[in-house]
Every structure is written in structure tokens, then in C-alpha cells.
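From the thread on structure requests for the teaching lab: each student submitted one protein with a one-line request. Submission from student K.M.:

"Model Beta-N-acetylhexosaminidase from Pacificimonas pallii, C-alpha cells only."
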Amino acid sequence: MLPLILGLSGPKLTAAERTLFAAADPAGYILFGRNVQNPVQLRALTDDLRSLSGRGNLPILVDQEGGRVQRLTPPHWRAHPPAELFGRLWDIAPMTAIEAARFHAMAIGAELHAAGISVDCLPLVDVPVAGAHDVIGDRAFGRDPHMVASLGAAILSGLREAGICGIVKHIPGHGRAEADSHEALPLVTATAEELTHDLLPFQKLNDAPMAMTAHVTYAALDPDHCASVSHKVIEGTIRGDIGFGGLLMCDDLGMHALAGSLTERMRAALAAGCDAALHCSGDFAENSALAEHAPSISTAARGRLDAAMIWADAEPDICADAAERRDALIESGLA
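Reply posted by the TA:
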């Protein structure tokens, strides 16, 4: 098995992809809008990936947050609200917000489970500050790290009840970034003391099954490398100060925050301590190059992957009316 999570080119596997993936055996896959047409097509695709890998617990990821980030969209799937809405509800009725967030994750999770998707890139527990880039924006719950931690825990709980593995992101925090890491490398100049504000939600959720790094440089932690390729940040901050023990993947290798070739980026992320490298483009030549140069997954990383994929051993039948219960709580709290 290779420590790669790869994107696909379209709504079904091409013959070339089938040959590559069967030989390479990447740790998992990530889906985007280009891979999603309707429930029947999507389930056929995920079943095909699972059959090709020979693993019933294959990680098949998607970004299904709600709001402006969701890959499964109407008319076949619900339009889910953004995280910020639950933060607004928290300001009025915290316990209602927690329950609404839990039902929110259950509703999303039930749809993903039915589609054969096993991992959601959620919850996002970045804590934004004034003046930060809007790439996070309403994807965040709000600016109180204790609130963010509580709502993030509710999201993880709801996903677990739906049989879906969650990923906390973007560790150790993207909320202060003044640039979009898809386009450029953000530099955060906050002091180590100020960064404790950002780390708190991740510390509270350090028993999550998976986490995704931030392509952000933190001057107080490692001024020379962004977090995804920094041994200091991964071992000293993420594994050390935060205490995260689950599977750690880097954010997308194709983002412009990183420098060097894709192969160099992958090697840097793995050498720094990431368990797996995420590459989302679905470009066949890029996937081939990464597979050719990737090492085998480490024993420790494989153990963390296996543990993550049994974390959400649950029956999703209880989630049938989760969306309606979420919406009722939001309406009653914000009315």
C-alpha cells in the first residue's frame, strides 16, 4: 500500500486508472464534483473502488461541509447550511447548537454512507481572526475556540453515529492566514502564546481518527517551513503540544502554497511526519508520477489508518430524520 490519497478524473474509472490503482494500491481516494452525477452512478463508482482495492474499509473521502463546500449537491442531495450558522445559534442557545450540529453531521453522514463514501473532511475547527482571508470565512463556527471545540466534537459524534470517519482540519489552524493557501503560502506571525488560542480546538479533539494539516507557515513554530512539510510542527506541535495520535494527512499537494515538483512535495510531507499525502487533481500523469516515487506506507501509519477506519463502526439507520431535526432546532433557536 502507498501512503497516497488520490483524486479521480471523472464519474467512473478509466481503463488506465483501473490498471494504475490496482498496481499502486493507494491508501484511499478523494472525490470531487467531477466524480458525482447522481446516486446510482456514485454508488457504482465507490463500489468499484472498493472492489478494486479488495478492502471493505477503504477510505473514500469527500469535502461535504455544507454551505459553499459540498460536492454532493441538489437536486439529488440536500443543500446543507454552513458552519457559521451553528456558531450564531450557540450565541443564543449553546446546548441547542450542539444538538443541531450533531444532527447536521448525522444528516450529511447518512447521505455519504448511502453513497458508499466512508470519510468526510469535517469538522473544520479553524478559529478565524479579524483581517484573515475569507477562504475559511463562514466555513468556521466562529471566533471562540471553546465554542469551536464543542461544536467540532458534536460534528464528530454525528458523523460517527452515521458510520462515517471524520477529519479535523486544518491542524494546527488556518484561521489567521491572510492568504488562500490554494493560491499562495500564508505566513502567520502570531506569537507562540497567541497561537494557543488556535490550538485549543485541536487539543480538545486530539482523539479524532484523522486530521489534515494546514499549508501555512507559523513564524513562532518553524519560520522556514510550512506546517505540512515541517518536522518541528508535526512532531513538536501536532503530535506533541496538541497530542494528536490519529492518521495525519497533508492538505492537497497541488495547492500553490507548496514549492517544488509534486514528487518533491510528497516526499517532504512524508519525511516531515505526515502518514499520507493527499493529491486531488485526478490528473492521470500526476497520479502516475506520485505512485512511481512513493514509498510503501509505514507500519505506524498503516496502524493509524486501520484504527481510523473502524472508529465509525455504527449503523446509520438512526439518521433518517436527522436533517429535519437539525432544521427544526435551527429555526426554533434563531427565530
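TA comment: The first strand starts at residue 2 and ends at 7. The domain at 2-334 is CATH 3.20.20.300 (TIM Barrel).
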